[in-house]
Each structure stands twice: as C-alpha cells, then as structure tokens.
C-alpha cells in the first residue's frame, strides 16, 4: 500500500475506464475528496474522457457534491446506478441524451458486484420483471440509447429472469475510517458499510486499482482484525482526508457510527401537517415482531410514529443500506440510522429482501394507476431512478405506499373534528396510466402481495386488479375531495372513517 494525494489518485483513472464508486446517498462513506479531485483534473486537463461509472446507491447532496461533480460534457459515457435524485447534473445530462444512464435496482447492482468478484457469469434475478427495468420494456435505460445494454432477458427451467452481464472494472474509489500502514481498512466511524469489500475484490480480479480514502493511517497491527472490512492485499493506494465528515449534512455522528445510543428526547419528531398524518396512518400497519423496510421520503416518518407509540422495540425496522433495528434517518441523512442493533454489508441485506424476508415495506409513490401500478422513477420531466424500491416492493409480503393525494401546493387544516383542503395540489397522482412502471400491480397480484395506498385523506387497497377505497378522513367529501381528483373510478364499498386521533396528533403543534 502507498499513501498518495487525491490529485495523484485522480491520475490513476484513464480515458474509457470503468470506475466503481463506493458510498451511499448524502455522503455516507463517500470518497468525496477523490471524486472532487477527478472533477478538478478534468476541468484543468480535459481528461479523462468517456468514463463508465457504477455505484449502486445514488451519491450526492442534491446540489453540488457527489457524482454531480462528474456531469461535465465528455467526462462520462455511461452511468449505472440505483438513482440520480442526489445528483441533478447527471439526470440533466441523461435527459439531454449526452450520456447513457441505466437506473437499475440498487440491490441487484450491489449483488452483481459480488458476482463479479467471484468471476461468476453475472447476476440472475427476477427482480425488475414487469417494470421499466425489464429488458422487454426500457431495460432501465433513462438516457442516450445504448447498443450494449448491461442486462438481458434469459429463460431458465421455463421461467424468465434478468441477467446482469459481467463487465471489467478498472479503478475503485472507496472510503474507510482508518488504514494501517499495510493497507488494512476499518470502517468504525462510518454510517454505512455498503459493498466496499465486493468492489475491491471485483477490481482486483480484473487486474485493476483500488484507492481508499481514510481519515487516518495508524501503525500496522494496531487495528482490531475483526473490524477490518477490506484487507491490505486488496488495497493499492490510500488517500488521507482528516476532515472527512460522517455525511454531507452531519460532520461527526457517533450515533450514526453506532458508538452511542440516543435517548427518545434526542430523536427527531414529525412536523405537523399531512405528511405526519400519512406516516402515523401507515404505522398502524405495523404488527408485533414484523420485519420491515422503511424507504426514503415520507416513509421514514413511520419510524418516528412508531417511537411515539412505543412500537419501536416491538418491530424490526431496517433500511436497504444494511442497518437493522433502531430508527432509520430521513432527509439528506436518509440511509443512516441510530440505535441500531446491527450493520451488515449491503448485498446481504438485499439477499434478505429478495428472499422474502420482509413482512412489511413502507415506500413512497409519485404516480398510481387504476391497476395499482406505481411510478417513482421518472415523472414530470424528471429522471429519478429506483434505488432499492424494486427489490423491496417485489420482495415484501405487504407493501404500504405513502404519499399526499395531490402534489404541488397542497394545503390542509384540522379544526378538531374534520380535515379541510384549503388548497388542492396542482399535480394529480392517481392516473389512468403511469409514465413509467416501477411497481406492477398485476405482478403483485400474481405474487399474492397485499398492497395498501395511504394518503392524508383516503386509504386504498388493491383487490383483484382494482383500487378499493377502504378509509376516508373525517370531513372529506368523497365526490368533491377524492373522485374529482382521480383519473379513474375506484371501487367504493362503505369505507371506514380514518381515526381522528391521527389528525389530532399530526396538527397539534
């Protein structure tokens, strides 16, 4: 192992290379100094060009950091990732047709890196069938058309599967907390393990170069060997950034690192309003002992609602990044958690999800169709991607989708007895058809999943390929406040009234 500067590390990347980048979302274990140095080199020299990047999780702060730094014309040829919601420049480049962009299920990409490390003939999976990821549909493509897509449809024993094709990786940019002088890497300060080991193994199998950004270098033999996540013989170079933060938003968090536990008064609360109603109603689906996933966005509020109701210790909340137990965080720190019981490598978390280990999944929706199809990946001219959504939604026994009934300017109030819509949102969400299928209602019926849609004014369930209105908020008129803002007619059969206590708790602040 050799210690070098970030600028020296950037020079290890050559034109047309494939670069694997570790890390998750809002800076969790992200080698930001290395990404920044690569951008700096390109702006100074115009090189390298035509790179292909792979990072299972979206990386960025939704503004200037992360892979957004690589948006410059000519720098990238292809991006394979779960989502670009954190990197707006990449989404915009893809929308202009400047790059190939494949937004593929986060778990499948994570697992595929493990397959590459083992030299196996790619990942074979059913995850993504009957969605826009299916090669019979868009094949996950969101940008310029490619003559060499990374996935294909294969048939085995009379069943259809998606095969992720093997590909070489030339360089990996990873991050740890500490390196010893030999190059053993530990992650004791990190909020996320990810698939750093699989990435390093895959790159070395391809004869490539592994660079790891760390906060410090210590003498050999001083790291507890049980905490070493990437052993020394897989590491070529180390770059020291003593100021690397836990996340982009949080400079230093012992709680995210799992070194301390927080009291209930230190945990976040739910802001008042419709999103609080939705999170509290969704939390009513929790059952004792249930193993659950909480997606990003509005669904992270389910953890707060569970804590307020004393349910947090009676269920197992997880997130796809590999955290088990405790309370997953939201906002820019989504992907981190506090008071968790275990942190596992991301591919293994998705093994649990894909294998049917989830009793409940709480996910967001952007659009819902009359057949129960859900879109969260591309809508309103915006490319988002799917993250772990497809793995989670196809693997769980029950899926609870949450979102406001309309979007863009919705205003609501509660007078102690009834919910009032002060201003309706500009954008309808319940449509005849969705722009892109991220979840197939028809396929869910084939798999015998229970599917629930929770909004601030109504609750629906999918039954026989039709949405059924099962609950309505106090004070809401079905014709005026529900049907008038849907493109289709749901089945209505004496819906129950949503519990008024949900609204009293949500609006009492």
From TrEMBL:
UniProt xrefs under Pfam families: CoA_trans
Keyword set, alphabetical order: Transferase
InterPro entries tied to this protein: 3-oxoacid_CoA-transferase, CoA_trans_fam_I, NagB/RpiA_transferase-like
The UniProt record lists the keyword Transferase: yes
Highest taxon of source: Bacteria
Record-level Gene Ontology MF annotations: transferase activity
Similarity remark: Belongs to the 3-oxoacid CoA-transferase family.
Protein name: Acyl CoA:acetate/3-ketoacid CoA transferase
Species assigned in the record: Nonomuraea insulae
């Amino acid at each position: 192992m050799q210690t070098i500067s970030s600028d020296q590390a950037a020079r290890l990347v050559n034109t047309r290379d494939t670069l694997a980048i570790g890390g998750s979302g809002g800076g969790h274990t992200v080698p930001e100094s290395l990404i920044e140095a690569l951008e700096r080199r390109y702006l100074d020299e115009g090189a390298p060009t035509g790179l292909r990047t792979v990072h299972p999780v979206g990386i960025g702060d939704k503004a200037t950091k992360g892979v957004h730094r690589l948006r410059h014309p000519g720098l990238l040829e292809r991006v394979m990732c779960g989502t670009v919601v954190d990197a707006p420049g990449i989404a915009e480049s893809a929308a202009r047709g400047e790059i190939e962009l494949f937004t593929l299920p986060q778990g499948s990409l994570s697992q595929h890196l493990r397959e590459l490390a083992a030299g196996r003939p790619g990942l074979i999976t059913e995850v993504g069938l009957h969605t826009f990821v299916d090669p019979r549909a868009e094949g996950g493509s969101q940008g310029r058309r490619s003559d060499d897509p990374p996935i294909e449809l294969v048939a085995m024993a009379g069943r259809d599967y998606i095969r992720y094709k093997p590909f070489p990786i030339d360089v990996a940019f990873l991050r740890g907390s500490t390196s010893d002088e030999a190059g053993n890497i530990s992650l004791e300060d990190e909020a996320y393990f990810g698939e750093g080991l699989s990435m390093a193994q895959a790159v070395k199998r391809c004869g490539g170069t592994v660079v790891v950004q760390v906060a410090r270098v210590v003498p050999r033999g001083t790291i507890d060997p049980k905490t070493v996540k990437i052993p020394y013989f897989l590491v070529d170079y180390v770059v020291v950034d003593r100021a690397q933060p836990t996340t982009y938003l949080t400079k230093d968090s012992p709680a995210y690192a799992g070194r301390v536990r927080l009291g209930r008064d230190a945990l976040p609360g739910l802001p008042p309003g419709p999103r609080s109603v939705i999170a509290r109603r969704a939390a009513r689906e929790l059952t004792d002992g249930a193993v659950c996933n909480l997606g990003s966005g509005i669904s992270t509020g389910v953890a707060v609602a569970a804590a307020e109701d004393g349910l947090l210790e009676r269920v197992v909340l997880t997130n796809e990044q590999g955290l088990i137990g405790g309370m997953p965080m939201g906002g820019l720190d989504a992907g981190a958690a506090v008071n968790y019981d275990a942190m596992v490598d991301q591919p293994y978390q998705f093994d649990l999800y894909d294998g049917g280990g989830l009793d409940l999944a709480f996910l967001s929706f952007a659009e819902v169709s009359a057949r129960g199809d859900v879109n969260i990946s591309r809508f309103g001219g915006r490319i988002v991607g799917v993250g772990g959504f497809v793995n989670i939604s196809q693997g769980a026994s029950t899926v609870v989708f949450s979102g406001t009934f309309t979007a863009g300017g919705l205003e609501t109030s509660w007078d102690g007895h009834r919910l009032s819509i002060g201003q309706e949102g500009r954008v309808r969400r319940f449509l005849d058809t969705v722009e892109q299928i991220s979840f197939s209602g028809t396929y869910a019926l084939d798999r015998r999943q229970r599917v629930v849609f929770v909004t601030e004014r109504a609750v629906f369930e999918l039954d026989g390929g039709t949405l059924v209105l099962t609950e309505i908020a106090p004070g809401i008129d079905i014709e005026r406040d529900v049907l008038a803002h849907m493109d289709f007619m749901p089945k209505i059969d004496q819906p129950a009234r949503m519990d008024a206590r949900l609204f009293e708790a949500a609006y009492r602040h």
